[in-house]
Amino acid sequence: MKPLLQIAFASAWNRRATLGLAIAAIALSVTMLLGVERSRLAAREAFAQSVSGTDLVVGARTSPVQLMLYAVFRLGEATNNIRWSSAEALAKRPGVAWTIPLSLGDSHRGFAVLGTTPGYFEHFRYGYRRPLVVADGRAFSGTVDGVFEAVIGAEVARSLHYAIGQRITLSHGSGGEGLAEHADKPFTIVGILAPTGTPVDRTVHISLQAIEAIHLDWQGGAPIPGLAIGPELVRKFDLAPKTITAVLVGLQQRGAVFRAQREINEFDGEPLLAVLPGVALDQLWQVVGVVERTLLAVSALVLVVGLAGLVAVVLASLNERRRELAILRSVGAGPRHIAALLVAESVGATVLGTAAALVLLAGVSLLAGPWLQGQFGSAPPPGVSGVGEWKLIGLVLAAGLVAGLLPAWRACRLSLSDGLTPRL
Amino acid sequence: MVSAAPVLQVRQLRFRWKPALPPCLDIDDFSVKPGERLFLHGPSGSGKSTLLGLLGGVLVPDSGSVLALGQALSALPGAARDHFRVDHVGFVFQQFNLVPYLSVLDNVLLPCRFSALRAARARAASDGDLAHEARRLLEALDLPRALLARPATQLSVGQQQRVAAARALLGRPELVIADEPTSALDAATQQRFIELLLRECAAAQATLLFVSHDRRLATHFTREVALGDLNRAAVLQQEAA
Lengths: 424, 241
Hints:
heterodimer, A: alpha+beta, 51% helix, B: Rossmann fold, 9 helices, 9 strands, 20% strand
């Protein structure tokens, strides 16, 4: 078998230009296939870990997916709020380590405004339990004096070119132009968060009291005519929130999560819904799943095209190799040797193409990884990630083997019918 | 010599390329004795190459038998036939004998890569050094040493034919079959090639079956056979026409 491999290599080297093109085509299509797979996994990972370390998300009774959409992804709006007293009762439950109240509904130039407490910056986790990092400035103080302080996510800062000290005004309601402005009560940006790759990047964070303060002279979604309370006066009012949108709950013991969920769902004060974020995120991903499967199917097609190119190159070379194959037959090579020669060629080409693809992907990941991480908060890993990818690689190599069978079969037929002198 | 078993013996051989076609070969009896220098001639298209394919065990007869060194080729399974061929038969073709991407030396060594028997014989002939025996043969066939490392394609046709002869002789196969080896050569080179080939076949004690359409070459050989006389199929075809 060893001399045969040497012959196969020498022959392939002799046709390195055309074979090289076929290998490049395979390398690119495998790069695409594995690149899509890795990006898909990285995106899924980032998505599944938009919120981590939170045991329960609690809101007004609705569907779990709906609750996740507005509480975590700031998409859509809550149909009902929950009472502040319910949130306080939750926080006092035995076994509850911390709670983060969330109050949504306002926006700033398309970005969601989130009212919360300073505890948000302390307890909120994403990815592999990574805490939020204030890249520039500080968290808002949460005191009455610092009521008009805002902390913005990385994407807000980047796309609106905001810096510390910038004054911004918030809009009432979310989405689109033409919203009523809370123009009389501007906020000062005191902190900018590091990129996370989660909806936090697209959020303007203010305190719960600030949410109350900007709505003191509002009713039913519009300013009360004839009543204007200036920003210097708000401190004289009771700024304790009346209602909030949702609460993130961290438990002391994760094992108690199902009991806590049941108890919250049976809460006496008002109808509440407690959701395990992981389960709901999985349900949400099913919706996105169609897109990722389509992507994977497209890249599989690209691979088929690449392999078809290889088969074409090997088949096309057969005619010029008939003399060579007849010589090998005359010096003792059997049809199985001839077949092995051609299968070795296409398997070798596929292996080389796949190896080149892995190197290419690693190079791209290492070079562009930090940038991707900064821009999107997630980047595909440089190495092979997971069993799924090994399976794909195995499939590619198997496909290369199958792709070699057709030329091999053809070559056997030719070498048998040619005898020792090919009829060219 | 006369009493020795024939190197090749063909009996009642019939072969057709496709079942629908008339037979192109129908040979009642044909044999080659050890040490013979046999000249087989016939016009182009008379089935010479087909007969060589059958004698080499690359093609299988529809009926009848081909015995090589007493072994019935059609009784051997395919892989064993391939093995038998490289162990006992060396081939030289009309042209394009060499694998273009291998060096001259690697081309000569090809049969030894597939046949342990020939590799062992070649080693025995030169104190265990295969390449040494190959170089000795190439030199005996008038090929300068400087050519050995060159790719086969850089040689002249005459040089290529001599390399092919060296390959056919390496490891001392019992039979050398040369299929129109001089047709691509000019007259002077032809003479030189045939002389060298005959000399080295004698040195290696190989039986030579030399096939050509050119009867003028027959003077060099111990026996001359016309394929037209052997092949009853050709007679039938002519009568039909």
